[in-house]
Amino acid sequence: MADRGRARSRRGGRAARSESSRARRPASARRRTGAGTTETTRARLRRGLAAKRASGAAKVLGMSTTRRAAVVAIVVCALAFTVAVPLRTYLSQRSEVRDQEAQLAQLQQEVAQLRDRKAQLSDPAQIEAEARRRLRYVKPGETPWMVQLPEDQPGSATAAQPGQQPAPQAPWYENLWAQVSGG
């Protein structure tokens, strides 16, 4: 028996096995040639082995198809939740960056306007015009004139015209009581 094992290993292992399997195979299982070839045993065995391998994976894991599908669903959900939080953070930060860029553009525009105003105020003639307009400064020897129109006076809007009664200042119920009591 030991001699047989050595003889096989010397021959090359696989080649020896294939030769011995051909010798053991019945004639009906051998490949047939011709147009009307039926499915051979070898093809059936190959399909059977593929099915055994597929079912073997399930046996190794010890789970049925339903359980495997549930595990896959749980893994997909876990991945979705893992990606959801960073994605939400990314999108919110992107909108914040957009808002900050808009604010930056607005501030840059305001800075440009202030620089223009500073350049205008560096001119002594412009400073003098601003002082005359805002602070009502006059040069020595000039006579200042202040023209006030009736609509410019602060008390003109509330003043009553001569034929009208002034608006009552008391609450309505006191005015009503005064009219009823005659006082």
Helices and strands in order, then pairings?
Blueprint: H1 2-11, H2 14-24, H3 41-61, H4 65-121, H5 124-135, H6 172-181
InterPro entries: FtsL/DivIC
Biased composition (Basic residues): 23-33
Transmembrane segments: 69-91
Can you give me a brief rundown of this structure?
Helix content is 66%, strand content 0%. It is built from 6 helices and no strands. The chain is elongated.
Please trace the helix and strand order, writing H or E for each element. HHHHHH
**What form results from the Cα inertia axes?**
elongated
Distance between the termini: 141 Å
How much of the sequence lies in strands comes to under 5%
The structural class is mainly alpha
Mean pLDDT: 76
Count of individual beta strands: 0
Taking all Cα atoms into account, the compactness measure Rg is 52 Å
Biased composition (Low complexity): 153-170
Transmembrane segments: 69-91
Keywords: Coiled coil, Membrane, Transmembrane, Transmembrane helix
Pfam family, one: DivIC
Structure description:
The chain is mainly alpha-helical and 183 residues long. The chain is 66% helix and 0% strand. It has 6 helices and no strands. The radius of gyration is 52 Å and the shape is elongated. The protein starts with a helix and ends with a helix. The model is unreliable at 6-11 (pLDDT under 50).
